[in-house]
Design goal:
- The chain is α/β, with parallel strands linked by helices.
- It folds into 4 domains: about 5-20 and about 175-325, Molybdenum Cofactor Biosythetic Enzyme, Chain A; about 25-45 and about 145-175, Molybdopterin biosynthesis moea protein, domain 2 (Alpha-Beta Complex); about 50-140, Molybdopterin biosynthesis moea protein, domain 3 (Molybdopterin biosynthesis moeA protein, domain 3); about 330-405, MoeA, C-terminal, domain IV (Beta-clip, Beta Barrel), CATH 2.40.340.10.
- It has helices spanning about 5-15, 60-65, 160-165, 205-215, 230-245, 260-270, 305-325; strands at about 25, 40, 50, 55-60, 75-80, 95-100, 110-115, 120, 125, 135-140, 150, 170-175, 180-185, 190, 200-205, 220-225, 245-250, 270-275, 280, 285-290, 295-300, 330-335, 340, 350-360, 360-365, 385-390, 395, 400-405.
- Strands 7-4-6-5-9-8 form a 6-stranded mixed beta sheet. Strands 16-13-17-21-20-18 form a 6-stranded mixed beta sheet, sandwiched between helices. Strands 22-25-24-26-28 form a 5-stranded mixed barrel.
- It is elongated and about 95 Å long.
- The two termini are about 30 Å apart.
- The structure holds adenosine monophosphate (AMP) and magnesium ion.
- Magnesium ion binds next to loops.
Length: about 400
C-alpha cells in the first residue's frame, strides 16, 4: 500500500502532464468564480481625473493658506460642479467652485475645503480654516496608472475583482476553460433521491456530493447517474465517460468484493493503474488510471459516502484545481484537540470535525455522533480533518494535532 504522500506525488505528476489549461474568452458578467488566464492591463487611469473626496469648495491653495476663523478669506462662488458634470470655467484668483464628492476639479484649483470649515453667504463663501495643499483631492492615476499590471494571471475572480475589472472597463476576459468532470455511481443497491426505496436499497448520495464538490472546485460536473454492478454496462459507461471528460470520478466497486469490477474494467479498456490502494483511513481502495489514447484521468473512489468525500478532499481536490488552472496545496494547521483521536496505527487516519479559534489558538473538536465511514450524517457542518499519522494509535485530548482545512 502506498503512503498518502507517495499517492499525492503520483497524482500531482499525472495531473501536471495533463493540465492543458486551455483558455476561453468570457464576458465580465460570466467571469465570477473563473480563473484569469492572462494578466489584465487597463487602458484608463484610476481615478480617471482629479476629483473631490468631499462636499465643499474647490479653491486655489494660495488664496486660502493664511486664513483663520478670526480672519476668514472670502471667495466668490462662480460655479457649481456636481458629480458627473464637466467643469466649464477656469477658477481665477479670489474665486471658488461649489463642489460635491466625486465631482471633477475645475481648472485653476488644487485643493478642496470641506463644507464644515466654511460659511456660505449668498454667492460668496468664507473659508474659516486653512486646508493642506491638495487636501481632499483624489488625483488622476493615484490608485492605478493606465498600462501597468492591474490583475495577475492565475487569480480567482470574485466580487472585488469584478469591481476592479468593471471600473477599468475590461468587459472581455481570458479565463481557463473549466475541466469537464464525469461522475458515475456504481452499485445495484442505488436509487435516486426521487425514487421510492425498496427494501435493501440506498440513495445515491455520492452523485450529488461529488457534483457539488466538482462545482466548488472550478469543474463542470457531468452527472452520468447510477450504473448497475454488471460488467458489460459498467464497461460501456466508463468507456463513454472517458471520451467525454477531462476527469472521471466513479464511486463504489473498487474494493475486493465479488461485485467490485472497476479495476478489471479499467485494465480491459487499456488503462494503466497508477494507484490501487493507499494507506489511508477512510478511503483505502483508491484507484487511479490513465489511458494511452486520451488525456483523461480516472479516479475510482470508494463507495462509502464519507470515504468518497474524504478521498475527494485529500486526493482529487489538488488534481481538479490544477486542471482548472489553480496551483493548490492542501492547507494544514496545528491545533489542540479537544477529544481523544484514535486510529489503528497502520494507516494515516482522517477524523472529521470542527476547527475553530479559541483565544487565538486553533482547537479541533470531533464531529458528534457515531464515527463510521458508513455514516455521512455527522459529516455535515464539519470544516476540517484531523490527522493521526501512521504508527500512532492515539492523540490524547489536549495534545497537538495536524489538521487539514476544508473550504
Ligand atoms: P462499495 O465501495 O461499492 O463496496 O460500496 C461501499 C458502501 O458504500 C456500500 O454500503 C454502498 O452501499 C455504499 N455506497 C456505494 N455507492 C454509494 C453511493 N453512490 N451513494 C451512497 N452510498 C454508496
Ligand atoms: Mg458497490
Amino acid at each position: 500500500m502506498l503512503s498518502v504522500q507517495a499517492a499525492e506525488a503520483i497524482i500531482l505528476n499525472l495531473v501536471n502532464s495533463r493540465a492543458s489549461n486551455q483558455v476561453e474568452i468570457v464576458a465580465l458578467e460570466e467571469a465570477n468564480g473563473r480563473i484569469l488566464a492572462q494578466p489584465v492591463t487597463g487602458k484608463l487611469d484610476i481615478p480617471h481625473w482629479d476629483n473631490s473626496a468631499m462636499d465643499g469648495y474647490a479653491v486655489r491653495y494660495q488664496d486660502v493658506q493664511n486664513c483663520s476663523a478670526e480672519k476668514p478669506v472670502t471667495l466668490e462662488i462662480v460655479s457649481e460642479i456636481t458629480a458627473g458634470a464637466r467643469p466649464q470655467a477656469e477658477i481665477q484668483p479670489g474665486q471658488a467652485a461649489r463642489i460635491f464628492t466625486g465631482a471633477m476639479l475645475p481648472l485653476g484649483t488644487d485643493t478642496i475645503v470641506m463644507q464644515e470649515n466654511t460659511q456660505r453667504q449668498g454667492d460668496r463663501v468664507l473659508i474659516l480654516q486653512p486646508p493642506e495643499l491638495q487636501e481632499f483631492v483624489r488625483h488622476q492615476g493615484a490608485f492605478y496608472q493606465a498600462g501597468t499590471p492591474l490583475l495577475a494571471a492565475g487569480i480567482k475572480i470574485g466580487a472585488a475583482e469584478i469591481a476592479v475589472l468593471a471600473t477599468a472597463q475590461c468587459t472581455q476576459l481570458s479565463v481557463y476553460r473549466r475541466p469537464q468532470v464525469a461522475i458515475l455511481s456504481t452499485g445495484d443497491e442505488l436509487v435516486t433521491p426521487e425514487q421510492t426505496l425498496q427494501p435493501g436499497q440506498i440513495v445515491d448520495s455520492n452523485q450529488y456530493a461529488l457534483a457539488s464538490f466538482v462545482a466548488n472546485n472550478g469543474g463542470i460536473p457531468i452527472k452520468l447517474g447510477i450504473i448497475a454492478d454488471r460488467p458489460a454496462e459498467l464497461k460501456q459507461a466508463i468507456a463513454q465517460a472517458l471520451t467525454s471528460a477531462d476527469l472521471v470520478l466513479s464511486t463504489g466497486g473498487v474494493s475486493v468484493g465479488d461485485y467490485d469490477y472497476v479495476e478489471r474494467i479499467l485494465t480491459e479498456l487499456g488503462g494503466t493503474l497508477h494507484i490501487r490502494s493507499v494507506a489511508v483511513k477512510p478511503g483505502k481502495p483508491l484507484t487511479i488510471a490513465t489511458f494511452q489514447d486520451n488525456n483523461c484521468l480516472y479516479f475510482g473512489i470508494p463507495g462509502n459516502p464519507v470515504s468518497a468525500l474524504v478521498s475527494c478532499w485529500r486526493f482529487v481536490q489538488p488534481a481538479l484545481k490544477k486542471l482548472a488552472g489553480v496551483n493548490y496545496q492542501p492547507r494544514f494547521v496545528n491545533a489542540t484537540t479537544r477529544h481523544d483521536l484514535r486510529a489503528g496505527g497502520s494507516r494515516e487516519t482522517y477524523l472529521w470535525g470542527k476547527l475553530h479559534l479559541a483565544d487565538g489558538e486553533y482547537e479541533f473538536a470531533l464531529a458528534v455522533g457515531s464515527y463510521s465511514s458508513g455514516n455521512l450524517i455527522n459529516l455535515a457542518q464539519t470544516n476540517a480533518l484531523a490527522i493521526v499519522p501512521v504508527g500512532q494509535k492515539l492523540i490524547a485530548a489536549g495534545d497537538q494535532v495536524k489538521v487539514m482545512l476544508l473550504d
